[in-house]
Structure formats: structure tokens, C-alpha cells
Write the C-alpha cells for this entry.
Amino acid sequence: MTAKIIDGKQIAAQMREELKAEAARLKERGIVPGLGVILVGDNPASQSYVTAKEKACREIGIYSDDNRLPASTGQRELIALISRMNSDPKIHGILVQLPLPKHLDENEVLFAVTPEKDVDGFHPVNVGKMVAGQRAFLPCTPNGVVQLLLRSGVRIEGAHVVIVGRSNIVGKPLANMLIQKSPTGNATVTVCHTRTKNLSSHTLRADIIVAAAGCPNAITADMVKEGAVVIDVGVNRIEDATKKSGFRLVGDVDFEGVKEKASLITPVPGGVGPMTITMLLYNTVESAKRADGV
Ligand code: NAP
């Protein structure tokens, strides 16, 4: 079997068109969804993420309030900016780009964002609500994975999903989302990590594998059941002398081998990546709708 490719770029583009229409409807009611963006320091990867997020906001009609602060910014100054955004009615979502410089307390900063504007879904109140199955902002990457599955016609209900990785931003929230008693959940979930014994004994039983390990070739063809759906969240840089940059991006899955066994597979790049920013836009528009009483 050769897998069909799940085109994350195309699914993301379709969702962004829907959000553009939603933002236009809100504008007719006098509301422009607003995202407050905070970047501290000059980490090149963070700078390019933030630039991409700001561009995506402009394209769909979200106002973005950009704040690029020097690496020397203090904790109090940062919290004061977040407090201003918390009470600014033009701002519906607040994004603090991580990682923060070492001298800043990341947990305290994320906690300072009011849960009503926590469009990253990292605040403990939103995490708790998600676990309890209540309405909450869902974290963008795992929510992007769920959207990719649903919009590719994959049945999540009743499926055995094996997630490789248990981070707070991908593996753990995804597992929680998929076990909810809801039409987008109802899966049976196994979560694997570096202490898991005999990883392939788990992945071989999976109807859906989600690789979020940050490790190239963590999933190879011999670990995949014929016809399984394989979602690759990993983004890893590997050396490549043929590239001007000297490197290329690969996922956690041996794409060439696994695509001969899977029924559906995401590429890297062009799979989960484009969905992450899209879900941030989605949460920001949702927040504006909630502020409008929808
Ligand atoms: P992380 O915090 O480093 O967590 C990685 C997890 O994978 C850990 O739970 C680790 O186990 C587990 N793991 C690592 N190697 C493993 C192996 N060989 N076998 C089994 N488990 C293994 O990473 P993350 O932040 O979740 O990110 C994971 C990957 O997704 C990275 O490549 C990252 O760049 C990518 N990512 C992509 C997007 C996107 O938008 N496309 C967004 C977020 C992350 P332990 O807990 O035992 O250490």
C-alpha cells in the first residue's frame, strides 16, 4: 500500500479562508479580533515564528499588537505588559513566544495571561478545563493534529491511537483531547516515551500513530501496521551539504519507508506545521466571538 499524503498546507489554507469569513462577519458587528504578541530577545527561530504569525494575522483580518522586547527585559516589566493586554478590549488573545530568556520565570509569565485570552491554551485553568472536558482554549499543535485527522476523514472514535512523546505542549494534551467523550474523541490512547519498553509492540497495534518525539527515524516501517494513519509532528534539523543552509528539516518518521505501509501520512514540512499557526488564529477569532457574547 502506498499512503495518501495529508496535505497540511491545503487544509490550513481552507481553515484560514473560513476564519477570514468569520473575521469579516465580526467586523460587520464592529469587532476586529486582536492578538497581542510578545517576543523577548533575539532567538532567530522565535523571530521567524513570530513574523509568520503576524503575517498570518494580517492575511485573515486579525489586528496584531506586536511587542519585540530586548533580552534584558525584566520579569516585572513583562508581567506589566501582559496585565495591560489582559485589560485591553482590543486584544482577544495573548501570545508569549517561548522559550523566554533564562532569567525569566516562564511559569509565572504564562500564569499572568488571563485564561480568557490564553489562546495558546497553556494556562493551568485552560489545561484543567480541557482535562475535565469543559469549553477551553485547546493548545494549537495537538488541536491541529485533531483537525488534520477530522478533515482527512479519519475516524477517531474507537480508534487505538499511539502517541510517541509526552510533552506538555503536544503528547499530554493530545492524549487528553482524544480520550474525551465527544465526537472528536472517544479514542483509546497509549502514550509512549523514552522509558517505554519495546516501543514497536505498541506502535504495531495502532490504528493511528502520532510521532512527537523530536527524534529523526523514531518511527520506521517495521513499527507500523499495514493501513495505519501516521501523523508526524516532529521537526528536526539534519545536516545536508546539498542545501545552502547546510541542513534540512525532517520529521520523526522515516517517511519513505513508512509511506509504503500507511494508508495516510503527513509530510514534514507541510503536514502538522501549517496547522499550528492556523489553530492560534482560530483560538483568537473564537475569543473575539466569546467577547461578543457568541
Ligand atoms: P519534547 O518536549 O522534547 O518531548 C519529546 C517527547 O518524546 C518526550 O516525552 C520524550 O520522552 C519522547 N521521546 C523522545 N525520543 C523518544 C524515542 N526515541 N522514543 C520514545 N519517546 C521519545 O518535544 P515537544 O516539544 O513535544 O516536540 C516534539 C517534536 O515536535 C519536536 O521535533 C518539535 O520540534 C516538534 N514540534 C512541532 C510543532 C509543529 O508545529 N509542527 C509544534 C511543537 C513541536 P521523555 O519524556 O521520556 O523524555
User: Anything to note?
Assistant: The radius of gyration is 19 Å. Residues 34 and 90 are 6 Å apart (CA to CA). The pocket of NAP is lined by residues 141, 164-167, 169-171, 192-196, 199, 212-215, 218, 233-236, 272-273, 276 (CB under 6 Å). Residues 8-28 form the longest helix (21 residues).
